[in-house]
Amino acid sequence: MKRPARPKRTRLRAGAKARTRPTLSTQQRGKLEEIIGYRFKNEDLLTRALTHPSLIDDFGGGVGFSNQRLEFLGDRVLGLVMAEILINKYPKEREGHMTKLFHHLVSGPTCAAVGAKINLRDYLFLDASMKHNRSGHYDKAVADGVEALIAAIYHDSGLDAAERFIKKCWIFDTLTKKASEPNANPKTRLSDWCGAHQAAYAVYATLSQDGPAHAPVFTVQVEVDGHGSATATGGNKQEAEKAAAAALLDKLEQND
What we know:
Layout: H1 8-16, H2 26-36, H3 43-50, H4 56-59, H5 68-89, H6 95-105, H7 108-117, H8 140-157, H9 159-169, H10 172-176, H11 186-196, E1 203-210, E2 217-224, E3 228-234, H12 237-255
Antiparallel strand pairs: 1-2, 2-3
Helix pairs in contact: 3-8, 5-6, 5-8, 5-9, 7-8, 8-9, 11-12
């Protein structure tokens, strides 16, 4: 009696037992290590960091075959290092402002941008369907690979080595600049000034509302306790608050 055929996945696993997992050539490894500024002592860690979960079935791999567990750890290592970097870089900033910067710097799109900077996709081991799959608003396979690479360096040489990689490869200038652009909302910039100078947050008060219903004029005052106040008008409350914040910022920045 003819035995029924095994399911496709079972056949794949059985056929994969004899397959050797993918690795970088000596030339590829040397080039990548030169780019990231780190040479691995344990090549297997680098190989796992570059192995996407899409290959698990093809190679009959177990839980430690792909970079998923390293990605999990790398996310935490990145968070610790980045929090310390921000604490040291902004000694006068309030927690709220640094939290905004932190989430931006450790986000998936940021990790993907770092991966693009070091051309990490060229070194990832992906199955055929993933090689050209960059769906979504960022390249998740590359972002995950960056976090896995951080963890691999951490396992290989410790936290200091992981920190050096992050400081070398991260895109700090373009990412942190967004929080203090001169064209940003004046109210946001005033809040940032308060955080940087350890001052109480600004308080807004509507002093009056004049004019006809179709063309009202709001007068608003903003005050930062111990640092001064400013008054401005606008066609609506939000517009008046922005104008008042801009006026107070002019005074405060002149005195810095």
